[in-house]
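Researcher: Structure prediction, please.
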Amino acid sequence: MPRLVECVPNVSEGRRRDVIDRLAKAIRGVPGVRLLDQTSDVDHNRSVFTFAGDADAVTAAAHALITSALGEIDMRTHKGEHPRLG
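Model: Predicted structure follows.
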């Protein structure tokens, strides 16, 4: 029986719908992964993506999300309700 893994990353973008849609598309583009949920908060300027699949596919989707986010989000200009760490 294959082992399912879930990943629930927070991304520092919750206002620009076009960017959020491209981030979700990066996840959906990985075979074997299902995007289960996506929520965004305008005040905090954050989005949370919940996706699952086998471990290799989820790892690939996480990398795809990271790559997409790095190209879309500039933390030097990011504004939100709570401070960022890391």
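Model: The helical segments are 17-28, 55-72.
Researcher: Thanks, that helps.
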